[in-house]
Design goal:
15% strand, 260 residues, alpha/beta, single chain, three-stranded mixed sheet, 9 strands, 2-enoyl-CoA Hydratase, Chain A, domain 1, 2 domains
Length: 260
């Protein structure tokens, strides 16, 4: 029987693929248990700097496996022990490395929540996004009512949740739900190029920036500014020296010239 969560590591980039294409990568109990385990392995691997999450075509993730939900219901509670560093329920568990979602097809309900938990999103032209919790008769538990309004605004989030209607890739781009939309056949190559840009940076800085974004986006503007200032002072004392900046200067200038 094929593995339902497949992993691969290449050039310091880890790729996690949901692998139930016949079920549109729906969240069975096996997937819900396997996904945080796969990400935990990537977190623990010193040879991985960035992680990509995608699905086996034709879908990214169709949400909870309704066949299992309607028979045994075990997938609805399969993640009860999975929490992040703050003790909040999550599909991934604690993580510090950047996570990029490569959305290759429909991302629906729980699948949309997986996408929203990623740091960046690249969508194939075939991607579609929908929150059908109200159609199924269950409530979101992985942060959708917080993260979706952050991405698209409260009124658009309410429209998606209350109607259950699908949003296409280009609309998702205009609304700010995704960072990029690319041709389907270029999705993984483009996503890997973004990941490689991240790999080329100082990884301690990348992870601290990720931590700061996590902290400031979950609080008020004023408190967020204080959090950033505290991190900046602490980082400067521990990590910033003239010698270190000079050692990186030539590479920084050259990379900047290449993007002008």
């Amino acid at each position: 029987m094929p593995e339902v969560v497949v992993t691969e590591i290449s050039e310091r980039i880890g790729t996690i693929t949901l692998n139930r294409p016949e079920a549109r990568n729906a969240l069975s109990s096996e997937v819900i248990r396997g996904l945080p385990a796969a990400l935990a392995a990537m977190e623990a691997d010193d040879g991985v700097d960035v992680v990509i999450l995608t699905g086996a075509d034709p879908a990214f993730c169709a949400g909870l496996d309704l066949k299992e939900l309607g028979s045994r219901g075990t997938n609805l509670s399969a993640d009860d022990g999975t929490v992040d560093a703050d003790g909040v329920r999550t599909p991934f568990g604690p993580r510090s490395k950047p996570l990029i979602g490569a959305v290759n097809g429909p991302a629906v309900t729980g699948g949309l929540e997986l996408a929203l938990k990623c740091d960046l999103l690249v969508a194939s032209e075939r991607a579609r996004f929908a929150d059908t919790h109200a159609r199924v008769g269950v409530m979101p538990g992985w942060g959708l009512t917080v993260l979706l309004p952050q991405a698209v605004g409260v009124r658009r989030a309410r429209e998606m949740s209350l109607t259950g209607n699908y949003v296409d890739a280009q609309t998702a781009l205009v609304w700010g739900l995704v960072n990029h939309v690319v041709p389907h056949d270029e999705l993984l190559a483009f996503t890997r190029s973004l990941a490689a840009d991240i790999v080329g940076n100082d990884q301690a800085s990348v992870r601290r920036l990720g931590q700061i974004y996590d902290e400031v986006t979950s609080t008020t503007v004023g408190e967020g500014l204080r959090i950033e200032a505290r991190h900046s002072r602490d980082w400067a004392r521990a990590h910033v020296t003239p010698q270190g900046v000079e050692a990186r200067r030539a590479a920084i200038v050259e990379r900047g010239r290449g993007q002008l």
